[in-house]
Specification:
- The chain is an alpha/beta fold.
- Helix content is 35%, strand content 21%.
- It has 13 helices and twelve strands.
- Helix 7 runs parallel beside helix 8.
- The chain is globular and about 65 Å long.
- The chain has helices at residues 48-55, 83-89, 101-104, 111-123, 127-140, 146-150, 159-171, 189-206, 217-223, 241-246, 251-258, 299-303, 328-338; strands spanning 6-16, 21-32, 37-41, 64-73, 76-77, 94-97, 177-181, 209-214, 226-231, 234-240, 309-310, 317-318.
- It folds into two domains: 6-224, Rossmann fold, CATH 3.40.50.300; 253-338, no CATH class.
- Strands 6-7-8-3-9-10-12-11 form an eight-stranded mixed sheet, sandwiched between helices.
Length: 339
């Protein structure tokens, strides 16, 4: 088998606060192949963005640090790189589209200057060549009047256009991996679909792998190959998109899907919500972290931390003590009939 593009093993990223240690990412492991589309989903505070920031090495002491684990990219552990090496990696080989383009873009520099700076840093080209590449990048993301946009400032663009500029910046150096952290936040649904189609089309053209961080399962269903569900700083389920939508094995995944209107089902059902609130990452519950909100918890759920193990179809894993015991699909269907 080919070596994965990215391999994360037992990653733990903690933050020190006055109240205690925040275990934002607590022992996650996963792989990402070349040209793969991986979706990472979960509620706010589950550790999705901190995972991305850890991969980019953007979390630094004393506020936070990666306390253990490895992040192997193209065969080498990124945690062993010094800052000068990481500056070459960021933008050049791993690019990131941040959640809010208004804060990610510098308000005092023009769009053209910011694009050209990135290109000149990673491609070692002249300013004239960087200008031409930046102009092409703006045209690729379908922004009209590319030359005039080179001279505009971020506040002069709409939210959708700023996000297109972030995509242009992220893909301008043909990275091996693009991390998109909630790339359609605060955009209307029509613009969301356009942005997602554009980003993934351009990534496919360049052979770029995509890690999509979102809380929107509908986006994952339409654009990803594989998905992993995060909760309380850990991964509770992973598999292909088809596996998780057809027959999820973890009660939390069922809860997320229950709150989503399904357009692929003939009969529509009452939407359900996951009761309670996400746990404090300072004082995590014993055993299974989802236990206080789970309708199927038993004694063992409070005593032992569940590890990811095979459940459902080959390649599907779930961190639930009762994954192979419960037929969640039948239980949910019975509840819908009696409701």
């Amino acid at each position: 088998m080919a070596e994965p593009l990215l391999e994360v093993n037992d990653l733990r990223t903690y933050f020190s606060t006055e109240e205690g240690i925040v275990r934002a990412v607590d022992g996650i492991s996963f792989t990402l192949d070349r040209q793969e589309r991986l979706g990472i989903v979960g509620e706010s505070g589950s550790g999705k963005s901190v995972t991305a920031m850890s991969i980019m090495r953007l979390i630094e002491p004393p506020a936070g640090e990666v306390v253990t684990g490895t992040i192997t990219f193209k065969g080498r552990n990124l945690l062993e790189y010094d800052e000068a090496d990481m500056q070459d990696i960021r933008g050049g080989q791993i690019a990131m589209i941040f959640q809010d383009p208004m804060t990610a873009l510098n308000p005092v520099y023009t769009i053209g200057d910011q694009l050209m700076e990135t290109i000149m840093l990673h491609q070692k080209v002249s300013r004239k060549e960087a200008y031409d590449i930046a102009l092409t990048a703006i045209e690729d993301v379908q922004i009209p009047g590319a030359k005039s946009r080179m001279e505009t400032y971020p506040h002069e663009l709409s939210g959708g256009m700023r996000q297109r500029i972030m995509i242009a910046m992220g893909l301008s150096c043909n990275p091996d991996l693009l991390i998109a952290d909630e790339p359609t936040t605060a955009l209307d649904v029509t613009t969301q679909a356009q942005i997602m189609d554009l980003m993934l089309h351009l990534a496919d053209e360049r052979g770029t792998a995509v890690m999509l961080i979102t809380h929107d399962l509908g986006v994952v269903a339409g654009f990803c190959d594989n998905v992993q569900v995060m909760y309380g700083g850990g991964i509770v389920e992973k598999g292909t998109v088809g596996q998780l939508f057809a027959n999820p094995q973890h009660p939390y995944t069922w809860g997320l899907l229950g709150s989503l209107a399904r357009m692929d089902e003939e009969e529509q059902h009452r939407l359900r919500s996951v009761r309670g609130a996400p746990p404090s990452l300072i004082n995590l519950p014993s055993g299974c972290r989802f236990r206080p909100r789970c309708d199927f918890a038993v004694d063992v759920c409070a005593q032992a931390f569940p590890l990811l193990r095979d459940s459902g179809e080959p390649g599907q894993e779930s961190a639930c003590h009762r994954a192979n015991e419960l037929d969640l699909k039948s239980i949910v269907q019975e509840e819908e009939v009696t409701a």
